[in-house]
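seq:
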Amino acid sequence: MLKPAVVPGEDAGTIGLEDRASDGVGLLNWLDMRSAAELADLYRNAPESVSLEPLDYAGLCRGMSLVGFRRGFLAQWLRRRARSARFIWRGKRFKSVDAQLGYGINELLFVRRFRALRFQARIAQSIVDGRQCIAIDYNYTDNKNPWFQRPMYDELREVRDGLYMGPVTYRFPFGRRRVLCYFAVHVEMPRTEGAD
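struct:
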């Protein structure tokens, strides 16, 4: 059982994580109430990643907490949109080659569902803190992504059993890379026969 990462200065009791619903929606809703700073602390305190194979069973996904927009009308509107069934980004689909390497694609919704923006996923050192993470790279060799997508680089770590979360970063002109927001993926592992 993975010990949940907690925000420094708070414990599981004050956060209420252990009392939240254990389903994907409940966990994503809990994360959605955290500020970008709290999500950054959760990410940094999460265990280092050793395998990306569980992401083959990625289920619910959600974008959250744009950096710099914690409160106010825009923050609330963006949070509602991200929860909406009509939000343009519907998630990511992963396929591991082995524990260290895999590939994937984003699911989008614009009039109809479709898949686009392929990526390579691998275990690598985080560009945020130097510890191991699952890196999601849109600028890998032989990619056919549009030019504006290639500077995107995401990371994930498991912050709770089955719940992966991390930053979305973008390299701006002159080499400056910034964290834009955070996103989460809930993994729905198949039940083994005889499981309770």
